Amino acid sequence: MRSGTGWQAAGRALFGRRARLRWVHLVLGGALLMPFWLVGTVALGPLTGEQDMWSRSPAFLFGAYGVALPLAAVAGLFPTARRLSVAVARALCGIPGERLADGHARTRAGRVRTAGWCTLHMGVGALVSGTSLALPPFAVALIAVPLFPGVRNYLRIEPSVWSWVLLPLAGTALLLALAAVSAAAGALLARWAQVLLGPTPADRLAAAERRATELAERNRLARELHDSVGHALSAVALQAGAARRVLDSDRDSDVEFVREALAAIEETTRRTVGELDAVLGLLRQDVDGAERPGGPTLGTLDGLLSRSGVRVSLHTEGPLTAVPAPVSREAYRIVQEGLSNVLRHAGASPVTLWIAARDEELEIRMENPLPEQAPVVRPGGGRGLRGVAERATLLGGLAEAGPREGIWRLSARLPLEGRR
């Protein structure tokens, strides 16, 4: 049973689909070397005096082969050579795609490695191709000696028992040796492809930077959605709950309060729909370097405070309109998240908000009384305060939040010359 399994494994290694595809890859390398080999024959012809290409000596043919290899290396220095080589290697060598580099070779190390790969691929491929072209007819002729006298006469072999037995065995052995050499050469190229066509340190660094940029963009969009939609839902839930309690009490004197609550809900949802459209526009924008929409800033803070569902006492210092737009947008979101945090955990507790625009930084501080009962904490914690800290960090600032002597305080310091 084990012997049969071993023979099957050997057969797959020599004649299986992967071995056949790798042989095609080698033949393709030989075909790619052919133009350079012809250039080598033209260059060596006047030096050796041999004019008939088909009657030239093996030494001349291998000399032309030696001239062709440096030319193949030069061809591999072009940036597009790596992209084409990777596509062919992935399709025919059976190499996982993530082990090979994508795109053109734009660094010196990448081009040098690609040149080495082209030399190896074309050089080994030319040897295997030439052997595959010349050896099988001779091997088949040896196998056919006992059956065809014409073949025996052509090879000038005297008929004997030994020629009838040994020559077919020799022909079969040559075919098996060719298959073994082709499989070994294909495995060699597959192994070296991961080294020569794999990502260079510069490629890995560029890929890491792309992933970091994509992750930062995803986190930014998540913060925008969380802050705008989360605040709106918290405010709407508070206003709707207050209006429902008034209606349930059947007190006609509070109809005006219900009207104001419904107006606040209307204004909050209308403003949030606009903010949601702006955030979704970031997802739909083409990668053409188009400028992103601005979004709300400290200049529109009055609208947020008037319809937030929380009584806010605002104190400002310095011209808020002079704050740079990136810092102003992030400051607006920090205030919005602070109000959402109050709505979730302290209800309609009054809030005191200080915003000071100084020469080098913008300071934000929000305070509200702690609720009598400890707030319900969601499993894993919320994302709002984490988003506030991320916004401040991206601008090179700091943010912190926590209880302080019976009050909850959220503070942030943002440099006016942010990192964005």
From TrEMBL:
Annotated catalysed reactions: ATP + protein L-histidine = ADP + protein N-phospho-L-histidine
Keywords: ATP-binding, Kinase, Membrane, Nucleotide-binding, Phosphoprotein, Transferase, Transmembrane, Transmembrane helix, Two-component regulatory system
Signal transduction histidine kinase subgroup 3 dimerisation and phosphoacceptor domain residues: 217-286
GO molecular function: kinase activity
EC number(s) on file: 2.7.13.3
Gene3D superfamilies referenced in this protein's UniProt entry, alphabetically: 1.20.5.1930, Histidine kinase-like ATPase, C-terminal domain (3.30.565.10)
InterPro entries referenced in this protein's UniProt entry, alphabetically: HATPase_C_sf, Sensor_HK_TwoCompSys, Sig_transdc_His_kin_sub3_dim/P
Protein's UniProt keywords contain Ubl conjugation: no
Recorded superkingdom: Bacteria
Claim: Transferase is one of the keywords in the record: yes
Transmembrane residue ranges: 21-39, 59-78, 120-145, 165-190
Protein's UniProt name: histidine kinase
Protein source organism: Streptomyces peucetius
